[in-house]
Write a structure and sequence with these properties.
The protein is α/β, with parallel strands linked by helices. It has 2 domains: 1-41 and 117-199 and 310-378, FAD/NAD(P)-binding domain (3-Layer(bba) Sandwich); 46-115 and 204-297, Polyamine Oxidase, Chain A, domain 2 (Alpha-Beta Complex). The protein is 24% helix and 25% strand. The protein contains 9 helices and 20 strands. The strands form 5 sheets. The protein has a 7-stranded mixed beta sheet. A 5-stranded parallel beta sheet has the order 9-2-1-13-20, with helices on one face. Strands 12-11-10-14 form a 4-stranded mixed beta sheet. A hairpin with an 8-residue loop joins strand 17 (233-238) and strand 18. Helix 1 (12-23) runs parallel beside helix 3, helix 1 (12-23) packs parallel to helix 9 and helix 4 (174-180) packs across helix 5. The structure holds flavin-adenine dinucleotide. The site of flavin-adenine dinucleotide has 40 residues, from helix 1, strand 10, helix 4 and helix 9.
Length: 378
């Protein structure tokens, strides 16, 4: 049997690359280190599973994100505009709240996905079912170039093993690649430095959500949008479902990663609820439930150097694969998109580009006998 093309990483980029490769008739193995798929996409709910809140990305912008819009439509998902009707709150450094009557206008408008962004991941996974072999809980720790294959060093709960690949699509962020993957032969120091200098987008961020019995802020004429110069939440938005039946607010935690770990999650939740109470009133202090996702504490998202706030959106590019790796390994993942780097659109764009290039250079890799440490895949 011919060797598979291995996709490293089961975030949006990896799953989309696997989908495109499978559609092109290729044999694909996707390897993901976490037990779950989705990477930075994570939607969390309570037992009913009806309304899940996004602890990673919430929005896409159909006017600017044609690939995401097309995937949403292909997967038959429902999207709805971010709720912005009503006054915006501005909290000063002293905790004083100023009410801006003007509705916060987004241009272009941002949209959310009913059921949470994770619907994208579930939809893609369903399409890969029975066609692409997916290994979760399996860390890629190194890649070795062999005459007719790329050998991947893997580690899972049962130990270390290897897997041969005809070619590889690598979707984990550049900083994690430089930090965690041992490349043999090694990549030039200048390229390694470029990867270390490329921040993983939003990896230093944390998100807070609070679910309430009613959207009481809407009843008081607030949109749920608030900007704060005091914190701990720097930017707050309505996170209710499309009908408004499940009422929720979410906030980006402005406080730096070191502060967050210093005070701990319970204190952070208390401070966030006190802030929501200052802004939206007494009812904000009694949520049904809350959740915090601190991405800086996730070693499969944030490299050590990502654990600090980013001053601005970095410039990303497609990256360079050095000889002799060229045409054996292809780079994808949102940090490899020059046009939409950092965003969901960039995850899809880079995957599309990598797969197109790979298919254009695809050579028939000869079948090889499994090595001693290799496992037989179905
Ligand atoms: C809080 C937050 C808010 C955001 N908001 C938005 C938004 O509103 N709109 C938007 O467009 N974008 C937003 N983003 C960015 C968006 O989430 C990313 O662009 C997108 O999810 C990146 O997908 P990816 O597949 O490129 O990377 P990832 O999702 O990071 O996937 C990489 C995968 O590789 C796996 N992995 C890592 N190391 C290894 C290893 N050694 N071996 C095997 N697997 C490994 C990881 O577990 C992960 O599953 C946000 C991100 C965050 C964190």
């Amino acid at each position: 049997m011919s060797l598979p093309i291995v996709v490293i990483g089961g975030g949006l980029s990896g799953l989309f690359a696997a989908h495109l490769l499978e559609q092109a008739g290729q044999r694909v193995l996707l390897i993901e280190a976490r037990e779950r798929l989705g990477g930075r996409i994570l939607s969390q709910g309570k037992a009913d599973g009806l309304h899940r809140l996004d602890l990673g990305p919430s929005w896409f912008w159909p006017a600017m994100n044609p690939l995401v819009a097309s995937l949403v439509s292909t997967l038959g998902l429902d999207a709805f505009a971010q709720y912005t009707q009503g006054a915006t709150a501005i909290e000063g450094p002293d905790g004083q709240v100023h009410r801006q009557q003007v509705t916060w206008q987004q241009s272009p408008a941002s949209y959310r996905i009913a059921g949470g962004m994770q619907r994208l991941i579930e939809g893609l996974r369903a399409r890969l079912e029975g066609k692409v072999h997916i290994l979760t809980g399996t860390h890629v720790v190194g890649l070795k170039l062999r005459p007719h294959a790329v050998e991947l060093d893997l580690r899972d709960a049962s130990g270390a093993w290897t897997q041969q690949a005809a070619q590889v699509v690598q979707t984990i962020p550049p900083r994690l690649m430089a930090q965690d993957l041992h490349m043999e032969p090694a990549w030039p120091p200048q390229l390694m430095q470029q990867m270390r200098d490329t921040p993983s987008w939003m990896a230093g961020q944390a998100k807070f959500v609070a679910v309430y019995p009613r959207a009481f802020w809407r009843e008081a004429g607030w949109s749920g949008t608030a900007m704060s110069h005091r914190g701990p939440l720097a930017e707050i938005h309505d996170a209710s479902d499309v009908s408004g039946e499940t009422a929720a607010l979410f906030g980006f935690v402005g406080a730096a990663p070191a502060y967050r770990t210093g005070i701990g999650q319970e204190a952070l939740i208390r401070q966030a609820l006190a802030q929501l109470q200052r802004i939206f009133g007494e009812q904000a202090s009694s949520p049904l439930w809350t959740a915090v996702q601190d991405w800086a504490q996730e070693p499969l998202t944030a490299a050590t150097s990502d654990r600090q706030p980013l001053a601005r959106h970095p410039l990303y590019d497609a990256g360079t694969v050095p000889e002799p790796w060229a045409h054996r390994l292809w780079l994808a993942g949102t940090e490899r998109s020059a046009n939409a780097g950092g965003y969901l659109e960039g995850a899809l764009e880079s995957a599309t580009h990598a797969v197109q290039e790979l298919l254009a250079h695809r050579s028939q890799a000869p079948a090889t006998v499994a090595s001693q440490h290799e496992r037989t895949l179905p």
